[in-house]
Amino acid sequence: MSAMNFGQKSFKPRPPDKGSFPLDHDGECKKFKENFMECLRKHHNDNNQCRLQTMEYLQCRMERDLMTKEPMKKLGFADMDATKEQSS
């Protein structure tokens, strides 16, 4: 017996909201990535403990046009944005 799919909408794939971004072929943000990975190892993959390293990595990518520039609060760092700006 074949399955009948009356009334089901067909799935239409769409690109991600942020689109694609270039890979860091030149290693411009490699040290930030390594800091993040080290933090993950140190904290047994608890990425909440590594939010500062994540934020620094994203800032590096934005500064080098490896991703679209966005306010950090839009990327989930609203609680850290003011702290980071004051320390700069």
UniProtKB/TrEMBL annotation:
Residues 1-24 are annotated as: Disordered. GO terms for cellular component: mitochondrial intermembrane space. It comes from the Eukaryota. GO terms for biological process: mitochondrial respiratory chain complex IV assembly. Its main location: cytoplasm. InterPro entries: COX19. The keyword Cytoplasm applies. Keywords: Cytoplasm, Disulfide bond. It is found in: Cytoplasm. Belongs to the COX19 family. This is Cytochrome c oxidase assembly protein COX19.
